[in-house]
Write a structure and sequence with these properties.
The complex is a heterodimer of chains A (578) and B (472).
Chain A lengths: L2 H7 L11 H7 L8 H6 L19 H4 L6 E7 L8 E7 L10 H20 L22 H8 L6 H13 L4 H7 L8 H4 L13 H19 L7 H11 L3 H15 L3 H36 L13 H18 L7 H5 L3 H4 L9 H17 L3 H17 L5 H7 L14 H8 L5 H14 L10 H50 L4 H8 L1 H6 L4 H14 L4 H6 L1 H19 L1
Antiparallel strand pairs in A: 1-2
Helix pairs in contact in A: 10-11, 10-12, 17-18, 20-22, 21-22, 22-25, 25-27
Chain B lengths: L8 H4 L7 E5 L3 E6 L7 E4 L2 E6 L2 E5 L13 E3 L11 H17 L38 E5 L5 H14 L4 E6 H8 L5 E6 L4 E7 L2 E2 L5 E3 L3 H13 L14 E5 L8 E4 L10 H18 L20 H7 L3 E4 L5 E4 L2 H7 L24 H10 L6 H5 L2 E4 L8 H12 L7 E2 L4 H5 L1 H10 L9 E2 H7 L3 H5 L2
Helix pairs in contact in B: 4-13, 5-6
Classes of the chains: A mainly alpha (578), B alpha+beta (472).
Family (chain A): Belongs to the SWC4 family.
GO biological process, one term (chain A): negative regulation of transcription by RNA polymerase II
Subunit structure (chain A): Component of the SWR1 chromatin-remodeling complex and of the NuA4 histone acetyltransferase complex.
Chain lengths: 578, 472
């Protein structure tokens, strides 16, 4: 059936002239096994097709050379059995090594095989491959009478019962569940028939723990008898320790707990699951909180980008950026999918109405002039309309708030915004950091005295403001104290100088020496220099107090070291005061 | 992997020795070759006995349902507790189970098979010394199953029959609970077997039953049948009587609830079969009823209890659409809530329909399935209880009652809200019916099982008591 026939059937308009491609198509190589007509139906770029030949495949040639391998019902014994039970199963006959070439020799070989078969049938030499799975658990060596009497005697267990237990353990390969289930020791199995009337001691019920305790004791003792603990290998020693440490009481109480756990009521189970769920929720929340916090801090630590944005601040620059973005966008999208005008129209600014919202104050003002003309050209008219409506609504909804409302909604007006994000608490924190360590410590001491924590517990706006005020007044106070101290010290110095002068005058009246005079000139100098540092005031005050006049010059030249030492000197002054 | 190629024996550790697996039950006896997935031979354990020409004759197999011979009476060699009572007949029934389909009858002694009858006193001397008799099972090892509470004497008798009468080279006696667990692919499981005469709960650990945990009670499929009979008796407007097919020669369709219009066949007293024959065939109709109509209330609570929103479960059950059933005589009726009631006493002893004529006494609470499970679990170590609950295996043909596993699941969840309860019940009816046989088929075809067989030699050495030592 040709393509023309199909057209005819489907009432499609016949093509005016025979297609010029047709000849070319024939030239195109037709795969084998497909008829010409069928191939003609496949048009251009036919998908790859697997061609199934409708023909009997038969066996591969190499297979016909093989002989059918015979199976025989062969007897075998299992090495794990002691009685040599012969069972029979089907097994593939072993092939002779090479395929005989001549028919005559084949016959001979078959005969040989037969004789071999009959021989093997009579004497099953072959061992079962499964006998290797016959493994037994390792049980300790049996004790002798002497060993038992010397080491293993117990008030609770008779020799017979111990034997019975050991037999059972061996029989059931240490499966304690089954041993405890089958444990049924008759104290006098022989006597029961002869003197049934005699008093038979009441059959005792042994718990699994009792059995285990007895067995582990015996096993550990036997192990220790075989090798003293000092000579044991590590594994043996571990086993020995483990067996010795078996605590039947503890095991029993554990089982009681397990039974309790098993027999919980539905309510208890529900409660437990609820509690577990709650716990899971709490820990998950905590984890979330921690990660969020860490993220926030890490974000704060990121250096604020200081790229040059001046080129984007003019409208020209912005449109240039838009063009480059569009170019990048276009190259990604395929032209066939995107319409010609659609490719140009959508701009990131007009597609996303979000920046138009008045919530972000500064950015929106910059964007609106761009967005407004772009909106009508936008292909997505609906989106634009919605954005415009939102815009209008937002403009209508703008209203001036009264100061009370502002306070209520937490609206703030900033004169100048610092770039980047920061914590309010951090700002408050910064206030407590003075330029110098001493000042900081003093601030902290003052705050501690006022019982205000250094890090604010609840740094709301108002609290921060109050805190700021507080710090400010504390600073003022400290300043005032500083000034007061300074003045005081100056007074003292001057008084001392005055005294000195008076004394000198007296002395001068008596001797009139020149060396004292030079000292006298040095005196006011440290006091003047000390005004720029707090510590130096202290020093100066100290100097004034103790009247150490000789070290004064040295100290001013090593301001730094003096400031470090100031603490200790402070203490010494206090002591002196006391 | 090519599904048409069987897995190599090395993959599953199989090594076939053409063993025969025989799983005798109260209602049916299953037999087949090990390694197959269903028993080839499935016969009723019931047998028919009649006398013809003054000689006692027996009918075995499905033939017992077919011909109402005069004086034919139906018997069962098993007791209601699953233990063999009539050993001679049990042997014959079991023999029939494997000779009819598996091995074929072996040529008997040519002196006795009737072909070589010679006149009295002319017995040829050459024949005397020849050992001609070939035993039935002389070349197949035999694996048999038994209930977990089988007494030692019955076990010894079983191995004697297998070894001495049938001449099997190797024998093993396995608990059917263990085999059902193996069929579900588990070495440790809590096996709940709902049979015809018994329900049993068997804890299995590492392929061995825990004797202290084995529980059984007579509330099996036959008990459900007796409940259905009680229901029919108390049916309104008129009690329903079951007339088996063999008593009906023709019938016409009637509307639901209308009295049947059928012509009955009558037997003269000397031609009539025994009453037990009629009972047997009535049971067949009842099992059909159980398959089509009876439904277990799925829970979450008892049928008599109140539901979650104040409406009693019985009301809810009433609102479910009924199920119609047509009896052999054409009588038909739609069964509503009654179809839940007849099985409710498996879970709730108080819900039993009273019937003074029934052979079953009113059930006690300890005989219900949940109680049996509870007692079984209390009989085993606490450490393995959660494991057992996570491996509950449901088997036995009566467990195929519609909604049974749902209810069982609900009951177990209510009893043990803490541990995870997981029921493994094969959806395939054959796997559920023949659970223990399939387990036996798996076990007997394993290469590692060869060392477990009790050989003829061992039996000769130690006597029948060896079964106690080896089949633990």
């Amino acid at each position: 059936m040709a393509a023309a026939d199909v057209r005819d059937m489907l009432d499609l308009p016949a093509e005016g002239q025979p297609r010029p491609h047709k000849k070319q198509k024939v030239v195109e190589k037709r795969p084998e096994g497909i008829t010409r007509e069928l191939f003609a139906l496949l048009g251009e770029r036919a998908p790859p097709i697997a061609i199934n030949e409708n023909r009997y495949k038969g066996r591969p040639k190499w297979m016909s050379k093989l002989r059918v391998r015979p199976w025989r019902m062969t007897p075998f014994v299992n090495g794990a059995r002691s009685d040599g039970l012969v069972l029979r199963h089907w097994q593939r006959q072993h092939e002779p090594a090479k395929v005989p070439a001549l028919e005559g020799s084949e016959m001979e070989i078959e005969k040989k095989e037969e004789t071999a078969d009959t021989a093997s049938a009579e004497t099953p030499q072959q061992d079962s491959m499964f006998s290797k799975y016959n493994v037994k658990a390792r049980v300790p060596n049996r004790y002798t009478d002497e060993e038992y009497n010397r080491h293993l005697k117990s008030d609770d267990w008779t020799r017979q019962e111990t034997d019975y237990l050991m037999d059972l353990v061996e029989e059931y390969d240490l499966r304690w569940v089954i041993i405890a289930d089958r444990y049924d020791y008759q104290p006098h199995p022989v006597d029961t028939e002869t003197n049934a009337n005699a008093l038979v001691p009441a059959k005792r019920y042994r718990t699994m723990e009792q059995m285990k305790a007895r067995y582990y004791f015996i096993a550990a003792s036997m192990l220790a008898l075989e090798h003293p603990p000092s000579e044991m290998s590590e594994a043996e020693f571990e086993l020995h320790e483990k067996m010795l440490k078996f605590d039947a009481d503890r095991e029993r109480s554990r089982k009681e707990l397990a039974a309790l756990q098993l027999n919980r009521t539905a309510d208890e189970v529900r409660e437990e699951s609820i509690l577990l769920e709650e716990l899971k929720r709490i820990t998950a929340n905590e984890q979330d909180f921690i990660t969020e916090r860490r993220e926030l801090y890490s974000r704060l630590e990121v250096p604020i980008s200081v790229g040059n944005t001046t080129m984007y601040q003019s409208s020209q620059g912005l449109s240039q950026l838009l063009q480059t973005l569009l170019q990048a966008d276009k190259s990604k999208k395929r032209r066939s999918i995107l319409g010609p005008e659609a490719g140009a129209a959508p701009s990131p600014a007009s597609q996303t109405p979000a920046p138009n919202a008045p919530s972000s104050t500064r950015d929106s003002r910059a964007d609106t002039p761009n967005a407004a003309p772009a909106a009508p050209t936008n292909k997505k008219a609906a989106a634009a309309a919605a954005a415009a409506a939102a815009n209008k609504e937002a403009q209508q909804s703008i209203r001036t708030l009264t100061p009370a409302e502002e306070a209520k909604y937490g609206v703030q007006h900033h004169d100048r915004l610092a770039p980047g994000v920061q914590f309010r608490s951090d700002r408050a924190q910064k206030l407590t950091q003075a330029k110098s360590n001493v000042q900081t410590q003093k601030l902290a001491a003052a705050l501690a005295e006022l019982e205000v924590p250094l890090r604010l517990v609840m740094p709301t706006e108002r609290v921060c403001k109050e805190f700021e005020k507080l710090i400010h007044s504390v600073n003022l106070l400290l300043e005032a104290r500083k000034v007061a101290e300074k003045v005081e010290s100056e007074i003292r110095v001057l008084e001392a100088a005055k005294e000195e002068r008076e004394r000198k005058v007296k002395e001068a009246q008596e001797k009139d020496k020149p060396e004292v005079k030079s000292e006298q000139e040095d005196q006011p100098l440290p006091a003047v220099e000390a005004t720029d540092g707090v510590e130096n005031i202290d020093d100066a005050a100290e100097g004034g107090e103790s009247g150490e006049k000789t070290g004064e010059v040295e100290r001013t030249s090593h301001k730094r070291s003096a400031s470090v030492l100031s603490n200790t000197s402070d203490k010494s002054t206090k002591r002196q005061r006391k | 992997m090519n599904p048409s190629v069987p897995p190599s024996t090395a993959e599953y550790g199989g090594d076939e020795v053409s063993a025969i697996v025989l799983d005798p039950g109260f209602s049916t006896t299953r037999a087949g070759f090990a390694g197959e997935d269903t028993p080839k031979s499935l016969i009723p354990t019931y047998y028919g006995k009649y006398s013809s020409d003054g000689q006692e004759s027996f009918v075995f197999g499905d033939d017992i349902f077919v011909t109402p011979r005069p004086g034919l009476s139906i018997h069962n060699p098993m007791g209601r507790d699953g233990i063999v009572e009539d050993w001679d007949m049990a042997e014959k029934v079991w023999e029939y189970a494997f000779t009819s389909r598996l091995t074929g009858p072996k040529p008997g002694n040519p002196l006795q098979n009737g072909l070589n009858d010679v006149p009295e006193g002319e017995l040829s001397t050459e024949m005397e010394g020849v050992e001609t008799e070939e035993k039935l099972l002389s070349d197949s090892p035999l694996l048999m199953s038994e209930p977990g509470w089988n007494p030692t004497k019955a076990r010894e008798k079983t191995i004697e029959i297998a070894m001495e009468k049938w001449g099997t080279p190797a024998f093993y006696l396995a608990r059917n609970g263990v085999l059902a667990a193996f069929a579900a692919g588990k070495a440790s499981a809590l096996v709940i077997d709902i049979g015809a005469s018994n329900i049993s709960v068997t804890p299995v650990h590492d392929g061995m039953i825990l004797k202290r945990g084995v529980q059984h009670s007579p509330l099996g499929g036959d008990y459900v049948s007796s409940q259905i009979r009680a229901l029919f008796k108390s049916n309104t407007p008129q009690p329903i009587s079951i007339t088996p097919h063999y008593l009906i020669s023709s019938k016409t369709a009637v509307d639901a609830g209308q009295p049947p219009q059928a012509k009955y066949r009558t037997f003269t007293p000397e031609r009539a079969p025994d009453a037990s024959y009629r009972t047997l065939l009535e049971e067949r109709t009842l099992s059909e009823f159980k398959e089509c109509v009876v439904q277990v209330w799925p829970g979450p609570n008892k049928l008599s209890a109140a539901g979650p929103n104040g409406v009693s479960n019985e009301e809810l059950a009433k609102s479910n659409p009924g199920r119609p059933f047509e009896f052999p005589d054409g009588y038909n009726q739609v069964f509503g809530v009654d179809r839940y009631r007849v099985v409710e006493s498996l879970f709730d002893a108080k819900a039993a329909i009273p019937d003074p004529e029934s052979v079953f006494p009113a059930p006690t609470p300890a005989q219900t399935v949940p109680e049996l499970i509870k007692n079984a679990l209390n009989g085993v170590d606490v450490d393995i209880r959660p494991h057992l609950l996570a491996n509950v295996v449901v088997t036995g043909a009566s467990s195929l009652l519609y909604g049974f596993t749902d209810r069982l699941n609900q009951e177990l969840m209510q009893m043990f809200p803490g541990p995870r309860v997981r029921i493994s019940a094969p959806g395939n009816t054959a796997e559920r019916k023949f659970g223990s046989w399939i387990g036996g088929s798996i076990l007997a075809s394993l290469g590692t099982f060869h060392q477990m067989w009790i050989s003829k030699k061992e039996f000769d050495e130690h006597g029948p008591n060896i079964v106690e030592k080896r089949c633990k």
